[in-house]
Amino acid sequence: MTLILDPDEPAGWREAPPAHGVTTGGSRLTDGLNPEQREAVEYRGPALLIVAGAGSGKTRVLTHRIASLIESREAWPSQILAITFTNKAAAEMRERVEALLGEGASGMWISTFHSACVRILRREAESIGLSGTFTIYDSADQRTILKRIIKELDADTLGFTPASAQAKISKLKNELADVESYARNANTNDPQEVMFLEIFRQYTRRLRDASALDFDDLIAETVYLFRAFPKVAALYQRRFRHILVDEYQDTNHAQYSLIREFTRPVPAERVREMESHGINVRALTDAAGGIPGASLTVVGDSDQSIYAFRGADIRNIVEFERDFPGARVVLLEQNYRSTQNILSAANAVISNNFDRKEKKLWTADGDGDKITGYTGYTAHDEAQFVADEIESLHRSGVAYRDIAVFYRTNAQTRALEEIFVRSALPYRVVGGTKFYERAEIKDAMAYLIAVANPLDELALRRILNTPKRGIGPATETALASFAEQNEISFRQAMRAASGLGLGPKVTGAISGLATTLDEAAAMLVPSAEGLAAGTNAGAAKVSDVLVFLMERSGLLDTLRNSRDPQDETRAENVEELVAQTRDFDRENPDATLVDFLTQVSLVAAADELDDASGTVSLMTLHTAKGLEYHAVFLTGIEEGLLPHQMSASEPGGPAEERRLFYVGITRARKRLYLSLAMSRAQFGEVAVAMPSRYLQEIPEGLIDWRQSPGMATSRGGTQPRALNARREGGAWGTRDRDLERFSVTKSAKPKTEWANRVTGTVRDNGDLTLAAGDRIRHTDFGEGKVTQVTGEGSKKVAHVSFDTAGQKKLLIKIAPIEKL
């Protein structure tokens, strides 16, 4: 094996860092920090755990700690590896450090786990038998492969689905188990286990044949690389002397193992070997001749650990002090985001979880407004309350982009979206079908992937008959069989299509596609001068290759000339992809096609949030992690939804759901709204809902109930159902105690006294025209006066001042109104 020097590394080497435990003096980097933040920035030692409560300025602490290490010359920028969970968080951290240090910050690795691993694996691919241009498969790609395998094996007869197989494989990989280790412990007498083993084996083989990795592989393969090739690991252990990990409570076993590998010491014999290869390590060695393990700083909050379903292991942060004896722990409790009323509610709720490091969030910014509570009769009624409050906030000067609505499950968006459309509220659902998941974008990307990685059979099969070329499933199967029998790749089989006896038209279509891909690949080869200099000079830009592929394949023309009205939008999406590649080329003049494909594959849901969009954000509580808004609406705070009925009976489930509620509460800066409904349509039936047990944990004086569960009971009952409303004599009613085991119950039909106050119907008002001054009557809101009309055509909106319901905005075309 050849050890290569890192091109990013500075030529000179600094003196050895101060001994562990030494703290640096104050500087401009610690001015304005509270005492705990200052301690976290200045502490120097082998391990530091920063327990950072929500809104306690953890990003500021991390960036100032990095800047402090560089400014005091205790570390070169290239010796710092900072890991976050989203590209957005990584970009923000990098920008903040650069703002503090300017040019002196270049060379740091600040990235997500996956990005860091891709960077290492691209560089070291040959060690583990991969091509440096390996493809990264997303969830949809994984399901496509598993669907084929399950069909070929008839595994569906044993109950296997692509989703279930994918989930099990992902879980195993996150535990660092591969096919061989799973096979050693498999029960060969269980037909289901034998079948899963075969699915797992074939899935692994197909990825390897295609020179592809899935997301879980990125981390698992890096851990494997470091463990199997200690010489390679030593290069990175020597290189990175300060490892900083954000959101440590969300790490799974594989990520935890990767961090352990990065922080292992390098033994003396390995150091001597590195020196013999001309790698300068003398400044880093200790008295025994080895290199001590890197300094580790982790930031997290066990109260915000909400990703157990993805394999996140809360023990990683809870047991940090046991894993790293002598670690310093710093508690950040001062909150700079929310009002005290919001924090008091959050503290009260989370204190009901056991096995947590005790902390109480507090703020110096005052109590603020009370939390607003509301109980609707139905989900539509709840949604109307949310829409009305958003309009009220907007009129008072709060921008739509500073407002968010959270819910536990995606199914809850239906009622919200219906009411928001009718109320003409601008909104967007975060985490819906993302740009790169759209079929036409995946088609265009498959062309680029097939050029970058000729071994990727999945990409080739996707584009084989896209757009339609008369190549059917039988021909595709014949090509695959020919490739297998002759031990050649699918791409080579396409080039040899003339020998398959498929008929002139089909053979011509296959050969034509193969030629197009070969010509595109030739465009990417650097010029002779570029090759001599080891650069990409002379190679075509990514955008030029994409335009060539779209034109030669006819994909764009097919979409443009289609009679399907949706294809016009699809064509625009492909054109947007071309525009994105042009932006990429401009911002990264020396980057390659593989660099572009890597960047695209690592885009996460939270990274697609555009804070500049003037819309209200709707998202699940899981997506809300790490975000903050002026006003937050937490909807569906009901038993069966929060805690979710699937989690309520699982060990640790209610505690995790409580952390989810806590995360939702602590996203709000100034205003927090908690809402629920008395009945909710689920799976085609109407379910009677009860208030969530977690509402009982919020002190009585913190919530101002506009309409409490008690007010919403039938016939104006006086017994309040609000869980934080006390019974006579100060004791909780038996009904409240029953909630601990209560789940949503079904009823045959909704009770008439809970009838929806918001109409479930819309009208087509045709060519109805309204102008300022007109009087109208609305089915729900009664009579009112139009104050102004905005918008054009079918999107005209009437701004109406109702005599009793106040100000509303209505989409004229569908609102249930009549002109008086």
From TrEMBL:
Domain UvrD-like helicase ATP-binding: 31-339
Record keyword Transmembrane present: no
Reactions it catalyzes: Couples ATP hydrolysis with the unwinding of duplex DNA by translocating in the 3'-5' direction; ATP + H2O = ADP + phosphate + H(+)
GO molecular function: 3'-5' DNA helicase activity; ATP binding; ATP hydrolysis activity; DNA binding
GO cellular component: cytosol; DNA helicase complex
Stored SUPFAM superfamilies: P-loop containing nucleoside triphosphate hydrolases (SSF52540)
Enzyme Commission numbers on file: 5.6.2.4
Annotated residues for binding of ATP: A52, G53, A54, G55, S56, G57, K58, T59
Pfam families per UniProt: PcrA_UvrD_tudor, UvrD-helicase, UvrD_C
Residue segments, region Disordered: 1-33, 709-730
Residues annotated as domain UvrD-like helicase C-terminal: 340-626
Keywords: ATP-binding, DNA-binding, Helicase, Hydrolase, Isomerase, Nucleotide-binding
Gene Ontology biological-process annotations: recombinational repair
Class of the enzyme per the UniProt entry, highest EC level: isomerase
Entry's family note: Belongs to the helicase family. UvrD subfamily.
Stated name of the protein: DNA 3'-5' helicase
Phylogenetic lineage: Bacteria, Bacillati, Actinomycetota, Actinomycetes, Micrococcales
